[in-house]
Design goal:
Layout: H1 8-21, H2 25-41, H3 46-53, E1 56-61, E2 64-69, H4 70-95, H5 102-128
Antiparallel strand pairs: 1-2
């Protein structure tokens, strides 16, 4: 007998729909996948993990076929999509969000520029302190 709240599958669909609409959902999925991959890659089953990530996967259009390892697809394709989405998020913040006015954007922009300069100094710093030069 079904209860007034609906069937179990519609309730599950409702929970899933709410999770997908939640802004932090993609971050949680990414974090869980990262933890799972790190655990698997450092487990006794790491050989299986390496074989899987080096498995060739191809995409073909007509007679042209592009084949590469899963690791290569992740490194190139998914990272390009990731940075594209980050760019869209930054644009949204600049147009509509917390960076839409000069007053709101000043502190984050200065912090980013300061960190960029610090990172460049970190890279050059050890080279200046080498003994014998």
């Amino acid at each position: 007998m079904a209860h007034a709240g609906g069937t179990g599958s519609s309730r599950t669909e409702n929970l899933f729909a709410r999770f997908v609409r939640w802004e932090a959902a993609s971050s949680i999925v990414l974090l869980v996948a990262t933890i799972a991959a790190l655990a698997w890659a450092n487990s006794p089953q790491r050989d299986l993990y390496l074989r899987l990530t080096h498995t060739a996967v191809g995409v073909g259009i007509g007679e042209g076929v592009y084949t590469s390892s899963i690791q290569h697809w992740i490194n190139d394709l998914l990272m390009a999509v990731f940075f594209f989405v980050i760019g869209l998020e930054i644009k949204r913040e600049l147009v509509l969000g917390q960076l839409s006015t000069v007053q709101k954007a000043t502190l984050p922009v200065m912090a980013a520029l300061g960190r960029h300069g610090r990172a460049r100094g970190d890279l050059r710093g050890p080279q200046r302190r080498r003994p014998g030069r």
